[in-house]
Specification:
Layout (H helix, E strand, L loop, with lengths): L10 H17 L5 H7 L6 H13 L3 E2 L8 E2 L1 H13 L6 H11 L6 H16 L2 E7 L5 E8 L4 E8 L4 E7 L6 H15 L4 H13 L7 H15 L7 E6 L1 H5 L5 H15 L1 H11 L6 E4 L11 E9 L5 E10 L4 H19 L1
């Protein structure tokens, strides 16, 4: 973090810096001395403004993207500005708060549906891309059921205590009656309820191996197949990422090269290992995290920033994160409290 006092900057230079960054965040364009002269509280000559801008550039807080153009903040400059915002947190508008509360107040929806709805709302309110990160659920199990889908296929449905519902397709031997699926489901429910996946599968397999399971041959095969669906397939869902509103971000991008870079960023975010790294970085400490450009290697040379916050379960353990991905000139003053409030609203529902 850059400390203005360590850079030896005068109050007048800091005032110009804050006015310039505020104007840049509104327009996304380089800001020149004429614009600053119109916005500053004190009358300053163009020469005085340019002199202070030169000092700010020498301090590494501003740069000029084109010859004879105005200035824009560097990543270090944006970091100093955003850190200042974090010290003086602003409140959400009543309208924004009501929109978020409205989605989180809906009852009878799964956790996945809750995250989907709040992600869409966050994208709409911020006019940026939104994303939700969540690891595979380790919650205790609540219910299991085989749902027939024709002659030789069924849907295996697993419900966890946190409301998460997981489905797997399973191929069935010919002639499996509904009664066998019911017996298999009842057997599994009696042993998995209130246990985590590892404990439940371990108990079921031990009983079958010791021939203690009171099952006919067909039901036993169904139980073994159902257990195998999650025991062998659990690693395929190490992390779940949901992105919405990507078009909002693309609207700010015009050049073909930048479009390609943003497309690559979307692909990299959807890679499970990157999603998990981002979740780990977000989970270090409480509260909102802001990644500006190359502060996180995912966003290097993308012209993007991310505002993201973790959400917790009833045991205060981090179980996921929700955030906004936008251009460097996003409205940080509005989006930071919006992301913070949304993460707290989700945690309140989950706990």
């Amino acid at each position: 973090m850059t400390d203005a006092t360590l850079l030896g900057l005068k109050p007048r230079a800091l005032e110009i810096f804050n006015v310039l960054v505020t104007a840049y965040l509104e327009s996304g364009q380089p800001i020149g001395s004429k614009t600053l002269a119109q916005r500053l509280r004190h009358d300053l000559s163009p020469a005085s403004i340019r002199s202070n801008m030169s000092d700010l550039e020498h301090a590494g807080l501003l740069f000029s993207p084109h010859t004879s153009a105005g200035r824009v903040p560097t990543e270090s400059g944006l970091r100093m500005y955003v850190d200042g915002l974090m010290e003086f947190s602003s409140d959400l508008t009543t309208e924004d708060r009501m929109s978020i509360d409205g989605e989180c107040a809906v009852r009878g929806v799964s956790v996945d549906e809750l995250l989907e709805k709040t992600s869409r709302t966050l994208s709409g309110l911020s006019r940026c891309a939104s994303l939700v990160l969540s690891p595979a659920s380790n919650a205790e199990l609540q219910h299991f059921e085989f749902v027939p889908l024709g002659e030789n296929r069924a849907l295996a449905v697993l419900v966890r205590m946190d409301g998460k519902v997981e489905n797997r397709l399973i191929d069935l031997p010919s002639g499996v009656p509904q009664s066998a699926m019911t017996r298999a489901s009842n057997y599994m429910n009696a042993r998995l309820s209130g246990r985590d996946l590892a404990a439940a599968t371990g108990m079921i397999r031990s009983e079958i191996a010791a021939q203690r399971a009171e099952l006919d041959e067909m039901s036993r095969r169904l139980v073994e197949a159902g257990v195998g669906l999650w025991a062998e397939g659990s690693s395929s869902e190490d992390a779940v990422l949901v992105m919405r509103g990507q078009s909002n971000l693309l609207d700010d991008i015009q050049a073909g090269e930048e479009l390609e870079t943003i497309g690559q960023l979307f692909d990299e975010l959807e890679a499970r290992e990157n999603a998990l790294r981002l979740l780990d970085a977000t989970s270090e400490g409480d509260g909102v995290k802001i990644f500006i450009g190359a502060e996180n290697k995912l966003f290097t040379n993308t012209g993007c920033s991310m505002v993201i916050a973790p959400y917790h379960d009833s045991k205060k353990q981090v179980i996921g994160a929700i955030g906004v991905l936008g251009p460097r000139h996003m409205n940080y003053a509005r989006i930071i409290p919006m992301v913070d409030y949304t993460s707290r609203a989700i945690a309140a529902v989950l706990s």
